[in-house]
Amino acid sequence: MPQGGYRPAVPRRRGGGFPLPGLLLCCLLAGCAAPPVQPAPPPGAIRVGEDLYQVPLGKDADGYPRFTLWSRTRAVITVIWYPDGEGGFTTDRSRAVRTPPSDIPRRD
Q1: pLDDT tens digits, residue range 75-89?
Q2: Residues facing 53 on adjacent strands
Q3: pTM higher than 0.70 for the full model?
Q4: CA 39 to chain centre
Q5: In degrees rounded to 5, what are phi and psi of residue 48?
Q6: HEC string for 12-49
Q7: Cβ–Cβ contacts within 10 Å for residue 66, how many?
């Protein structure tokens, strides 16, 4: 201790901690934001259910048209679908037909 019997004041840092109030405010404001605008179905999409579409992906090396599911509100699996020739789709390529996408019936 220095002479005189007092202890020198140690300056304390302010504002060096975690900015919790600011972070909470940002989270609150982000939670109040409007939901993003949902896009329209992609071009060429074939409606197969309520808000469920088959979207063309082109053709594979053997000329089979390929599709994938798309929805703006529903969860979908990512798998390749082929037209089955009966107005539906299949994941089994051995049951697929080489029908041009324009000839596939739409189930609207």
Answers
A1: 999 999 999 888 889
A2: 47, 70
A3: no
A4: 11
A5: -120, 0
A6: CCCCCCCCHHHHHHHHHHHHCCCCCCCCCCCCCCEEEE
A7: 18
